[in-house]
Structure prediction request, 589 residues.
Amino acid sequence: MTPPQAGWADHPAALALAGRHRVRVWEPIPWVLALTFYFAFPKHLGFGTELLVTILFAISLDLVLGYAGIVTLGHAAFFGAGAYTVGMLAKHGIWNEPITGLILAAVVAAAVGLGSGLVLLRTHGLTLLMLTLCTMALLEEAANLAHDYTGGFDGLDSLPIAPLFGVFEFNPLYPKTQYLYVLTVLFVCFVFVRTLVYSPFGQSLTGIRENMLRMHAVGAPVRGRLVLCYALSAAIAGVAGGIWAQANAYVNLGTLGLDRAATVLIILVLGGYGRLYGAFIGAVAYMVLSHFLSKIYPTAWQLGLGLLLVVIALFARNGILGIAEAAVRRLRTPHATL
Amino acid sequence: MTTPLIETRALCRNFGALAAARDIDFRLEAGARHALIGPNGAGKTTFVNLLTGVVQPTSGSILMKGRDITGVVQAERVKLGIARTFQINRLFRRLSVLENVCIAVAERVGAAPSMFRPAGMRRDVVEESMHLLDSLKLTADATHRISELPYGRQRLVELAIALGLKPEVLLLDEPAAGVPSAESHIILDAIDGLPRNIGVLIIDHDMDLVFRFAERITVMVSGAVFATGSPGEIGADAAVRAVYLGRAGHG
Prediction:
């Protein structure tokens, strides 16, 4: 028997908890692949940049959906808020420095997240889902009507984004700068989210997802935590939107659209939510699948994607990563009955 | 007379036309082993919800150590030392047993808002949680997810979470409900072993459990206190037998 004062730090459960945040051996792989892509496919960096932005956006959604369990169909509201912040500031000649531009995009998106979160997060379930959708639709319509500032339906193009550090130009035809810039920002944001989900704050978000009633009963300020998480996620989505506008030098209503919000949700479900790397896997799988499916079956390629989603929803709730995790667990415990 | 740990004065709660609590005057003394019994629908769980702040009273007041806490929100009452367990398990099912307790402990010691330090590196939180699991003989299950545990053990985790809040008042809502009789001794032993300085209110139907632990029993019927007394007095009370014990059966 262990004497009471011996300490429990060596117990397997304590070790598992203490080692959970450590970097696994495979974790550098996606980053190495992303760098390899830069050198191997210089002609496809436009596609690569789009993919990285999508991953960043999906990570922001994972924080609210996968960790805090907030079901939202309106996350593009924050993507668009960030994109329009960058777009309007640049187009109207107020501010066009990229990095500070992203910070501004994050602040504006966080403010929108905070404001809407304070109201929306009093509800849950279907009501919450509909309200997130409505908030996004309202923003989209506002952007459509404020033609003088937002360019309305046409959006704002040829944004004069200043060179990065005053040196590296954003060239839309050879988006080398964009690719590395987006990759760096993605890495910074990813490290932030990764730190967050393993922290006590992240643990309490998981607690709220698993059992909100119990979190109330242990004295957690549940709504405050949710609103804060929502605002942080909105900030990251805003960065994704802002960087998208910078990389493409334009912004349009599509950044605020249901299409974008639904796509990112599909990506996360496909890859596996609440898993950090689900965003990576999902985004790659979605982009690759839509690329090949549209080649094979140009008129109805979305049908194939839809069928795949039905299969995932029915048989693999935890997405592609979930399947992989189950397979690894099986290999490690060969005699498991599960 | 000493100031009671918890006192309610003329506490009322109506749900529409239904009076789920009417004029409840109740005292829970420090270190008490108090049981609340009554037929189904007597308002026992509503009373717990009133004490914990889940439900606001229509009228009346709740005092803790003489201080009026009627308007204090649920989270603040937990900080004041009121903890509860649920009639049906409310656990973090996909997390490990250790994590379940850590979440409660982290909340109590104020670690939960911290964002930049890994949760597992909070030695104090992990250490205290493990001690708690040890005291409930749960260390062997610490790595397991809740969903892998038998129901009886899950009930113990319920208890561990509540104890992780270091309560002065512990409200146990049917602690042995749903536990197969072969396992119920685990729960009974755990309740037996609760620190004496905690005031415990047990809500239950199980007369064996109630008469084993309670030093004082309050009987509720239709939202009102019907009788209060020692187990001997309640057991001998003809009126109580008529409205409750006789009808509900003796186990």
Remarks:
- The interface with chain B takes residues 4, 7-9, 11-14, 16-21, 195-196, 198-204, 206-207, 210-211, 213-222 of chain A (CB under 8 Å).
